[in-house]
Amino acid sequence: MDRTRDTRERGVSLVEVLVTMALMSLLMTAFAASVETRATGSQTEGASRSLLGDLQLARQRAITEARDCRVPTR
């Protein structure tokens, strides 16, 4: 009985370490993918807000000046 208890208290096996590392790498990969998706979405949102502002300004100028107005490209 003492021999069994001593074996359990010595530590973890190589298989346990490998399984833990594999799970951690999967979680880190999923996290990195979600962060990248958020960053891309944020850039797209910023660009679309900028474009909307430019279009609203061009519309306002076109109405005020009663002529065609262009949105500058960047």
Q: How can the largest sheet be summarized?
A: none
Detail the poorly predicted runs: none
User: What is the number of helices?
Assistant: 2
Broad shape? rod-shaped
- Over the alpha carbons, how many angstroms does the gyration radius reach? 30 Å
Strand content: under 5%
The helix fraction, in percent, is over 70%
Category by helix and strand content: mainly alpha
| Terminal residue distance | 77 Å
Instruction: Count the E strands.
Output: 0
Number of domains: 1
SSE string, helices as H and strands as E:
HH
Oligomerization state: single chain
| Mean pLDDT score | 84
Fold and architecture overview:
With 74 residues, the chain is mainly α. It has one domain (14-65). The protein has two helices and no strands. The mean pLDDT is 84.
Topology:
Elements: H1 2-9, H2 14-65
Concise summary:
With 74 residues, this protein is mainly alpha-helical. 81% of the residues lie in helices and 0% in strands.
For this entry, give a set of tags.
2 helices, mainly alpha, 74 residues, single chain
